[in-house]
Amino acid sequence: MALSRGGMAAPLPLLLPRRLAAGAEPPENVVRVPWALRLRLQRGAQRRRRGQKEAAAAAAAQPGKLLLRSRRPELSQPRWQTVGRWERPQLVSAGWKHRKACGDYFQLEPSQEAAPALQAPPPPPDAEPGPSFAAMGLQPALLAGLEGLSIGRPTAVQRLAIPALRRGRSALCAAETGSGKTLAYLLPLLDGLLSRPEGPAEAAAAAAGPASPRGLVVLPSRELAAQVGAVAAALCRPAGLGVRGLTGGGAAGGLRRQLRAPGPGAAVLLGTPGALREALRRRFLALGRLRWMVLDEADALMDDSFTEALEEILAHAPLAAGAPGPAGPGEARTQVVVVGATFPAGLSQTLGKFTDVGRFVTLATQSLHRLPPHVQQKFVRLKGRDKLPELLQLLKERPASGGAVLIFCNSASTVNWLGYILDDHKIKHLRLQGQMSAAARAGIFASFQKGDVSVLVCTDLASRGLDTGSVQLVVNYDFPDTLQDYLHRVGRVGRVGSKAPGAVVSFVTHRWDVDLVRKIETAARKRTGLPGMDASINKPPPKGG
Fold first, then answer.
1. Considering its fold, how many domains does the chain have in total?
2. Average pLDDT taken over every residue of the chain
3. pTM of the model
4. How far apart are the C-alpha atoms of 380 and 477, rounded to whole Å?
């Protein structure tokens, strides 16, 4: 090996072998490459170039019909291309952990126009869902309430859940976000209350003591409680049933006033875990007459901040006898319905402390845990310092008629900081995060829903269950921490009743973000559900409760 003047080895030139004149000595510093290896390398390079040209030509031949569109055309995937279950597709995000990947992006194109929830699935063997709400046998008063809400066509989850829940079965109801789960549990359970009205003696006894609702819906946030409460009130008004909401954030006297507000007795109560626990402790509320209970957005309710309060509420409810058996709605037992788009792993263990989870029936839609096929989703690899300019560009280029915008951050401090920046750029917006006081949070989301302000900067507090039919753009300023959070955020657009499918733009900055993006891209290319999401639903309940 030749040495340079400083004593270091000088790089040797890589020369391909060539014929030498007879008797000539080979030159020094030559690395000989065998002819067989040289030919093999040439053939491999030719195959790669040919494959790239074919992929680019296929993408160019299918304009507007791509499943995945990449900045590099050779990595785009047409809709007709199928990736096998055991194949390892070539990912756009494969090299995104390298700093040189900044600026790269790919986009999941919509493969259908309508939301999957509007496509009627084949009926299960033990159910007979009809083509309309009237054909399902619901009470006339509820049909009148639906007419007042201008709702006439049941969605897939409603066709699946309403017949099963009307038979009094406790259930785990799992469906994609924005699919109409609220009506799927409210309608059959209100129908059960109307079909079994309480007598005058029972009503008088209930009025004398603490509030004793026959139906209870537990929700993780005051915003969601207000939203579901408005729907429940519209359904109950023609039937004469009373609906009350119970949220905390104030003095104990506020809880009593909410429970004793003027009007018909509270047959249905909607509340947050903290407020319900406080009302039970102060004996403002009793659950002895409870006939049905709903745990909405179960994954949020199972968060560490709610677990203790939720278990205390379950302990007060008459669940010890177990969930309703085959005898149906005639049994005087509490029907439990657990609802969500994603479910935590410890759900069965928590419920098993209070009721017989083995009797629960699972109601799951076909699109559960799948990326919404009607929503455009773009992933952009950026440096952290480039996120703010990219966001400002998005907001300034968006037309005035482009609908509302949700900007998700992972922390309350980022929400506040980003809000100050938007103020400096004269971009009108609202902020919503869990560290705000109850007074500050009151009315913020309602104002956003009414369209007073079209930009909302928020944490995942706004990603669970809230109706965001006016939203047409979701920006993940901070990439979500889990695949469950991503599904909930992307579910804020393309909901049942939305005017347009909408789009999602995600900024990918950290190495751990790339790990999640690779799983999302793989699931999209293979047209499968996101990995690891079905374990909590398919996992058998614990033995012995």
1. 2
2. 83
3. 0.79
4. 11
